[in-house]
Amino acid sequence: MAASMISHHVAVVVFEHESRVGGTWVYTSSTETDPLGIDPARAVVHSSLYKSLRTNLPREVMGFSNYLFLPRVDGPGDLSRSPSHEEVLVYLEDLATEFRLEEMLRFEKEIIEVRMVEKDGKWKVRWRMRNGSGNGGGGGGGKEEEVFDAVVVCNGHYTEPRIAEIPGIDLWPGKQMHSHNYRTPEPFQDLECFRCLFPPAASAADISRDIAKVAKEVHVASRLYEVETLGIQAGYYMWLHPMIKKANEDGEVTFLDENSVCADVILHYPRYKYLFFFLETNRIMTIDDNRVRLLYKHVFPPHLAPWLSFVRLPWKYQSRWIAGALSGRIALPSEEEIMEDEKDLYSKLEALGIPKQYSHCLANSQKMYLESSRKRHAQPEVYHDEGGDETRISQVHEDSAKYPSHR
Ligand SMILES: Cc1cc2nc3c(=O)[nH]c(=O)nc-3n(C[C@H](O)[C@H](O)[C@H](O)COP(=O)(O)OP(=O)(O)OC[C@H]3O[C@@H](n4cnc5c(N)ncnc54)[C@H](O)[C@@H]3O)c2cc1C
């Protein structure tokens, strides 16, 4: 986002809670004290990465069009098309150096409040140092609050777990955790592990195979599995099941087809909540069952556009669009048109029977995600290593052409 702002000559200050760039891509072996990640008093760990993670998209698709994510030629590194998380972090660090982002970054400062200043439409931003002190040094000039013309919210959306509601779970004697706190398979050694899966996400498939290498059995449940794919999976002690019907006091878990298995652990996967605890918009915006509204194209609240925006509720070319709108180079439609568009979107989702909680999941409307998902199911072992997928790459070029870079 900051790199796009520079390209559009928009002055920007970035508040970052951590002490380095990389966000989600900074792997840590640390996990939270509450394995389910729901205790509000827990010390929050931002990243949900697990150690074996490789990207689920080809590097071409993940890179910025004006700073491509190519294999490094000048030293050791991961040359593959779906590289390791370490390689993504190095790319982001290189990007930060290239665009001199560190000059605008204020590390170890946590945003605690963003509030509209009614009289002039600006935004008051309050922050505190990560260690709890209010007087920040660095670029903050010792201030605890500052006023800005616009705010772009980019706080990441893979930190606050959502837990599946399973009838009977309160009396079920096993252990539960969320994949946010999964790092390596060792703790699952020899367990009869059971994992609860909703969308067939790439990392969910990776984690189940990770665990299946060491656990006695892995049972995976999803509402999306088709009948013919259910049962044991070749090469692993891993079974696919329809959704869970209930968890029982004797330790068994029963599926919708009435089959049951005994399980030591339920690993909830991979849903997260949108959380903007710091944002005060005088009720102009709400979050209802993970639907953030009102938002034009998942980015701009109509009444506040372009002065408030959200990045990456879904995956899209948003940064350049936001930067273009803030710099005045891209005009947004009128408030009435935006409201109409929003209503239209939600009526379409309702007509398609898509629950509110998936309002910002555009994956199924994007060719490359569909292709990626098909390949993952057809060839789970090798999909990371496959060569280029021309449809995916051409979609990147198509989308990229809509919002040309000004750099
Ligand atoms: C397991 C997993 C696998 C993934 N794999 C892929 C993949 O293969 N390809 C892909 O394209 N995407 C993948 N993603 C999505 C990934 O989240 C995005 O690629 C990208 O990291 C999102 O960037 P972001 O800047 O929006 O959020 P983040 O990377 O999460 O960064 C948000 C930043 O905001 C900071 N922050 C949060 N709250 C505050 C606050 N109050 N004050 C100050 N700072 C704050 C955080 O410290 C963090 O640095 C994956 C995600 C997960 C969880």
From TrEMBL:
Annotated Basic and acidic residues bias: 378-401
Name of the protein: Flavin-containing monooxygenase
Residue numbers spanned by region Disordered: 372-407
Gene3D superfamilies: FAD/NAD(P)-binding domain (3.50.50.60)
Recorded superkingdom: Eukaryota
EC number: 1.-.-.-
Keywords, sorted A to Z: FAD, Flavoprotein, Monooxygenase, NADP, Oxidoreductase
Protein family according to the UniProt entry: Belongs to the FMO family.
InterPro entries attached to this UniProt entry: FAD/NAD-bd_sf (IPR036188), Flavin_mOase (IPR000960), Flavin_mOase-like (IPR020946), FMO-like (IPR050346)
Cofactor: FAD
